[in-house]
Write a structure and sequence with these properties.
Radius of gyration: 15 Å
Oligomer: single chain
Structural class: mainly alpha
Low-confidence stretches: 1-11
Distance between the termini: 23 Å
Helix content: 55-70%
Shape: globular
């Protein structure tokens, strides 16, 4: 589980951050991103519907991804979602030394950004902004900010 592929890679142009706007970048990063998100969703025991909603794809596309039969390119928004999820996956592993890293996304949470929902439910409802907030929340808990 320690081989998470970082998607916060710096853009080849000096001084500019990766935006996932360029087609070539998205094509290069899609395969590793899909693999990492599938791995996180599996570790978190997310349902197919939850995994698809988190990545912003249809359930049929999610099923093809899981079967290794999808050869598309993720959109800028989908790669942003993937980056947030992968960062969250890594942050949870750094925060928790036991199985809590995989259980936490499915536990009801009273934290201010979750409103007693599970983090997975909150991220599905709140979309990219809530995904980024959840990642930052875990980074702050572990003292990473």
């Amino acid at each position: 589980m320690g081989n998470v592929i970082p998607l916060h890679i710096q853009d080849p142009r000096p001084g500019q951050l990766q935006t996932f706007a360029e087609e070539d970048d998205r094509a290069r990063l899609t395969g590793p991103a899909v693999k990492a998100v599938l791995r996180a969703a599996d570790a978190w025991r997310a349902s197919n519907a939850e995994g698809a909603a988190l990545l912003g794809v249809s359930q049929s596309t999610w099923d093809r991804m899981k079967a290794g039969k999808w050869d598309g390119v993720l959109s800028q928004d989908q790669l942003t979602r993937a980056s947030a999820l992968i960062g969250l996956f890594k942050g949870l592993r750094l925060l928790f030394a036991d199985g809590m890293a995989d259980r936490w996304p499915n536990l009801p949470n009273r934290g201010p950004i979750f409103d007693r929902r599970t983090p997975i439910q909150a991220m599905i409802v709140g979309g990219i902004p809530r995904m980024l907030e959840t990642r930052l929340y875990i980074d702050a808990l572990r003292g990473g900010l």
